[in-house]
Amino acid sequence: MRATFELLELSRLADEALRKAFPAKARTQTAYPPWVYPPDGHLPFIERNAVVLPGVGNSAVVLEFRVPLGMDGVIKRVSNLYLGGGFVSGSGDIIWRILADGRAVRNFANITSEYGALSSPIDVDGIRIYSGQLIQYTVTHVANLALGDLTLCHLSGYYYPSSS
């Protein structure tokens, strides 16, 4: 627990140092692309849902949303959890996937371990999403008949006006 607080404090200090090194005027859209640093007028989003894990050999969509027309965005935080007992992270009994328009997002096509926690999703470098795209977080129950409780997925980030 102490290590978590120390990491949060280090993150806060690093954020302060960046803000001093790059004043607000320099942090605008002209200084950084909108997928790197949120531009003025960005709209944060949080998508979270839970479903009962489907039977062995079946898949389910845990959460889905469509990127608003005229907006692009960035997913900055993700989590996927199994909320019951008996699951061994990394076993391959459960596979989560993040999809954009039905295609697996690079590096998120075969997630066999739990990411993050209910209250603290993990930060990712950024998954760019585009106007009108259907974003889905799916789960596949590959093996282990003993599993059957809830699985939860979380995606959060921000939208910004599309440039095209």
Tell me what the structure shows.
The structure is a single chain. The protein has one helix at 2-21; strands at 43-52, 58-66, 71-82, 94-100, 103-104, 122-129, 134-141, 150-161. With 164 residues, the chain is mainly beta. The protein has two domains: 1-32; 42-161, Sandwich (Jelly Rolls). The chain has a four-stranded antiparallel sheet, with no helix packed on it. Strands 2-7-4-5 form a four-stranded antiparallel sheet, with no helix packed on it. A hairpin with a 2-residue loop joins strand 4 (94-100) and strand 5. The protein is elongated, with a radius of gyration of 18 Å. The protein starts with a helix and ends with a strand.
Number of structurally distinct domains: 2
Q: Share of helix among residues?
A: 10-25%
| SS class | mainly beta
Calculate Rg over CA atoms. Answer: 18 Å
Beta-strand fraction estimate: 35-45%
Q: Give the SSE order as H and E letters.
A: HEEEEEEEE
Backbone shape: elongated
Mean pLDDT: 88
CATH architecture of the largest domain: Sandwich
End-to-end separation in angstroms reads: 45 Å
The largest sheet is: 4 strands, antiparallel
User: What CATH first level of the largest domain would be assigned?
Assistant: Mainly Beta
CATH topology of the largest domain: Jelly Rolls
How many helices?
1
Which regions contain 5 or more consecutive residues with pLDDT less than 50? none
Kindly report the spatial arrangement of strands forming the biggest sheet. Answer: 1-8-3-6
The count of strands amounts to 8
